[in-house]
Amino acid sequence: MAYRTAGVIGAGAWGTALALVCARAGLDVILQAREPEVVESVTNRRINEAFLPGVVLDDRISVTSELGALGVCDLVLAVPPAQYMRATLDAYAPHHRQGAPIILCSKGIERGSLKLMTEVLAETIPDAPAAVLSGPSFAADVSKGLPTAVTLACEDAGLGEALMETLSGPGFRPYLATDLIGAEVGGAIKNVLAIACGISEGRGLGRSAHAALITRGFAEMTRLGTALGGEAATVAGLCGLGDLVLTCSSPQSRNMSLGLALGQGQTIQQALAGKRSVAEGYESAPAVRELARKVGVEMPICEATAALLAGETTVDAMIEALLSRPLKAERE
Ligand SMILES: NC(=O)c1ccc[n+]([C@@H]2O[C@H](COP(=O)([O-])OP(=O)(O)OC[C@H]3O[C@@H](n4cnc5c(N)ncnc54)[C@H](O)[C@@H]3O)[C@@H](O)[C@H]2O)c1
Ligand SMILES: O=P(O)(O)OC[C@H](O)CO
Predict the structure, then answer these.
(1) Could you report the per-residue pLDDT of 175-197, keeping only the tens digit for each?
(2) Is 280 annotated as a binding residue?
(3) How much is the pLDDT for 251?
(4) Is the pTM of this model over 0.95?
(5) ipTM for the complex shown
(6) Is the CB of 279 within 6 Å of ligand 1?
(7) Computed from CA positions of residues 224, 77, 178, 171, in that sequence, does the dihedral angle turn out positive or negative?
(8) Which among 9, 14, 141, 288 is the best mutation to test ligand 1's pocket, defined by most ligand atoms within 8 Å of the CB?
(9) I want to staple 239 with a disulfide (CB 3.0 to 4.6 A). Which of 8, 125, 186, 300 is the partner?
(10) Nearest 5°: phi and psi at 197?
C-alpha cells in the first residue's frame, strides 16, 4: 500500500521532528498537539516554539488539537510521553482508521502495569498493526536533516518493509527488525542508564567509570530484554546499544543532563524545576526496577538510579553501593 497521509500524535520535540521526517518523505502530515499555544505557533509562524524552537516546518504539515482529525490518516505515529500513552490511545481509539498501522515512537515502561508500549497499544487499539521506531536520534539533529539511523521493528516483515521505505530519506535511515520487545526495552532502559552516566559525569568520576557504566548497563539492558522474550541481537542494535551510546555521551540528552545536575549536587526538585520537556528515565525508573524484580533480572545500576530518583539514597551512597558489590564473572 502507498501511504499518503501520516498522523502524528503528540507535538513535543520528537513528534514535531518526526512530522518533518514524514513530510520530507513526501507524505502529507497532520500533527496533533495538546497545547493551544503549539497549535497557534505552528499555524501562524510554522514553528513549534514551545518544544522545537528555531525549526521551520514544512508546508505539508498541518496542525490540530483534535485527535479525531487523524481518522483520515493511513499511517499514525504515536509520540506522547510513555506514561501518557494509554490515556492518549484510549482517547484516539474511536477515531482510528481500520487497518492503519501505528508506529510507537515513545521510550518507556508504563508505571503500575509495568507494560511496554506495544502491550499498551494491544489493550487500547487491539486491531491496529503495530511497529516500533527507536534508536539514537535527537529531535534537534533529525529536524535539521542531519544523518540519523534508527531501528524500525514490526512483526509483519512485509509491513515493516513498507513502513521503512515510506519513512526513509537521505538523512533518515530506518533499519528493519521483527523483534518488538528487544526494540522497546533498549529505548526504555537507556534513559535510566543515561541518568546514571550523567551522575557519574557530574560527580567527576572520569571516563573510565563512564565506559564501565555503559558496558555494564548494556549487560543489564540485554538481560532484561532477553528475559522478556526479546533477542540479544536486537538490543545490540541501534535501538539498544546505539541509543545507549548517544544518550550517555551528550548533555544534549534530557536524561543525561538530569543526571549531571544530580551529580553536581542539585536535588531532583531543583533539577526538574521549570522543565516542560520529559526525562523518560525519571518517569520509567520505578517501573524498570519493579519489572526487573518481577522477572528476576539483576539490574544494579538501574536499581541504584531508581533508588536515588525516589529519594531513598544519596549520590555518594549510591556510588559506594555499586562499587562494593561482590566481585563476579563478567558474563554472569
Ligand atoms: N526529544 C527527542 O530527541 C526524542 C527522540 C527520540 C524519542 N523521544 C521520545 O519521544 C517521546 C516524547 O518526547 P518529546 O521529546 O517529543 O517530548 P517533549 O519533552 O518535547 O514534550 C513534552 C510532551 O509531553 C506532552 N504532554 C504533556 N502532558 C501530557 C498529557 N497529560 N498527555 C499527553 N501528552 C502530554 C506534551 O504535549 C509534549 O508533546 C518520549 O518518550 C521520548 O523519550 C524523544
Ligand atoms: O533527550 P533524551 O535523553 O530524551 O534522549 C532523546 C533520544 O531518546 C535520544 O535517542
Answers:
(1) 999 999 999 999 999 999 999 99
(2) yes
(3) 93
(4) yes
(5) 0.99
(6) no
(7) negative
(8) 14
(9) 186
(10) -65, -40
Residue 28, pLDDT score: 98
14 is in an annotated binding site: yes
Please name the residue whose Cα sits nearest to atom 9 of ligand 1. 106
- pLDDT tens column, 249-275: 999 999 999 999 999 999 999 999 999
Nearest ligand to the C-alpha atom of residue 109? 1
269-322 pLDDT per residue, tens: 999 999 999 999 999 999 999 999 999 999 999 999 999 999 999 999 999 999
- Listed residue (64, 15, 57, 16) closest to 39, CA to CA: 64
Report the residue among 52, 107, 258 best suited for mutation to probe ligand 2: largest number of ligand atoms under 8 A from its CB: 107
Residue 251 identity (one-letter amino acid):
P
d(CA 235, CA 223): 10
Contacts of 318-325 spanning 24+ positions with Cβ under 8 A: 318/199, 319/200, 319/203, 319/205, 325/300
Q: What is the 8-class DSSP label of residue 52?
A: B
Q: Is the CB of 136 under 6 A from ligand 2?
A: yes
